[in-house]
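Allow me, if you will, to draw on your knowledge of protein folds for a short while. The matter concerns a single protein, recorded as an amino acid sequence and a row of backbone structure tokens. Could you please explain, in whatever detail you think fit, how the structure tokens follow from the sequence? I remain grateful for any guidance, and I place the record below:

…
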Amino acid sequence: MRLKIEHRTVYRYAIPVTLQAQRLVLTPRDDAELTTLSRSLRCEPEANILWTVDVFGNQIATASFSDATDALAITSEVEVEHRAPEWPVFAIDPGAHGYPFAYTLDDMVDLGALAQPDWLTSGAEAVGAWARGFVLGPQTDTLSLLKDLNAGMLDSIVYRVRDEEGTQSPAETLTLGSGSCRDIAALFIEAVRHLGMGARAVSGYLVDPDQPADDAGSTHAWAQVYLPGAGWITFDPTHRRVGSRHLVPVAFARFNRQIMPVTGGYLGDADAFLSMEVSVRIRLL
């Protein structure tokens, strides 16, 4: 597929405010399955944009503004070539076919915090117990276990659109029995870490070819799990899918909060903020 993605965020204020620097994570991550053909990033009012790369290798744009304004519009446009297969085959190392398995020492060191549960967050023990409930016996197939977890989450968690900022804790999502895509992905990631495997959060775009041509996508959050031999395998528990066929990754991190598309604030009256609007248009070219 060749896709054009337009992501537009608009903030409105009751009176002119002074904008603080805005951190923008909007540039797709190129890999064997994805190539960025063109990209542009515009801000209204005009901004000075500084490009950097974070510790995860994500492209980060920092937009700085000089004039007060009563509105801020951020528009990202990219064209990508998407080659992910519908039914991927994973060449998992024979030593990792059966669960539990052991990473090499190098892998364990390099995965670091990506393979460690967040014990500092309340309810971590409950999440670990819930995750272990998917293990069918002392020896089971690793990929089958991950697929069961990916497909079985929606038996316990109901998807709901949530406009509030931030991500629920995994334990909170379990207790409430509902969450947004980022909440469901965060619970999946934490469950995988409790099972002793490395996992990372992914943000990007969902491509839905069943929607009208000018409305075929949205922002989305999902997960990847590291298995020796196969590398990082994509799991989308919100849609019970495995593989990247319907996904365009923008950024990877330990937690969702590290890769929100737009973060920033303003200096002024707290009541000055009126609204935020986000639109994503994805067209198949």
